[in-house]
Specification:
This is NADP-dependent oxidoreductase domain-containing protein. The protein is of the alpha/beta class. It has 13 helices and 10 strands. The structure holds NADP nicotinamide-adenine-dinucleotide phosphate.
Length: 349
Amino acid sequence: MGETKILKLLILCIILLYSPIDLAKSCSEEPDGVCEGCTSENDICTMKILQETSRSVVLNNGEKMPAFGLGTYDIQNQEVITYSIVELGYRHIDTAQVYENEELVSKAIKEAIQAGISRDELFITTKLWNSGFENPVKALRESLGRLNLKYVDMYLIHWPIPEFEEDKKTFKKTPMHQVWQGMERCVELGIAKSIGVSNFNVQLLIDMLAYAKIPPTCNQVEVHPYYQQEGLLQFCQKYGIAVVAYAPLSSPARPDGGNGRNILKDPILQQIANSHDTTPAQIALAWNLQLGNVVISKTNNVTRAKENIEAVSVALSSKEMDLIRSLDANEKIYDTQEWECFGNIHAFK
Ligand SMILES: NC(=O)c1ccc[n+]([C@@H]2O[C@H](COP(=O)([O-])OP(=O)(O)OC[C@H]3O[C@@H](n4cnc5c(N)ncnc54)[C@H](OP(=O)(O)O)[C@@H]3O)[C@@H](O)[C@H]2O)c1
């Protein structure tokens, strides 16, 4: 990125910080759709990108969660995270104890802060693995130690499946209502600003809403054009639980799950992408965002990280949304049946 462009972005950031609504107007009011933020008619408007990347979803506890985030499962180095934060405007970073990369994420956060980003601007999620179900506070304190943070913005129960006893057959006696009490304690102690769940289905959510003192703020689940989970999404919307879509590109490198199909090669997504002069990945991400979901996508590549976050400025017509809706095939990538640690249970399909 050239010096002039960095300076321009910096000025835009400052203006944006103080008058986001005015900027929205000046951008759309310009003839030819070219405003101060656009370097040329063909360029993606930097002003619009900045405006959109700062877009957040307001959670049921009043906290704001940035609508587009960087997943870090299997991320190889912290440079891509640092670059994504500092240069591309990512503010939401998703990690988990079980990814064994909280230290790496911590290095990226440190570098971003050294580059002038404040901790308050960042939204950091980590997750409780089932080995920590008996004491979520202890597990979170350990995660915070690895992340070198005083608090996380979001703490999630990663999977609603308790560990096995040594016999590998009997579940440990840690019922979910007890685990949730531990999660609530994390909020009371100020070490998690918000708490939520992941991979919960409607039945588990109903149960949780019946016993929770603090209702879950979000449910992080697999959502992409081949696995749309419409019923679950409608339930979450009705009960004020934000949906965070993981594997939004259907995790194309994964060997397990699904039907071996790759949404990035889908002819309909390709056709829509051609008409927007974008990529199928950007169309899949834009569709998910337009449903109202928070979206977290992972890449080890800074060019693809830029491509992905630019999806925030793609607007799909209702006809295009309907076309993508027709691609639903109930093809789940992350299927616990593949995983011995969960006893190869074919859960939540
Ligand atoms: N709560 C849960 O149980 C759970 C489960 C799974 C995932 N997650 C979270 O969700 C995040 C995202 O899910 P995910 O990583 O499985 O899947 P994903 O974001 O759908 O796909 C990631 C894969 O797509 C490739 N990719 C990324 N951008 C691309 C682009 N523009 N064009 C072509 N290929 C592209 C990446 O390869 P390169 O790296 O080579 O670019 C990577 O192989 C995870 O990192 C994790 O933080 C949570």
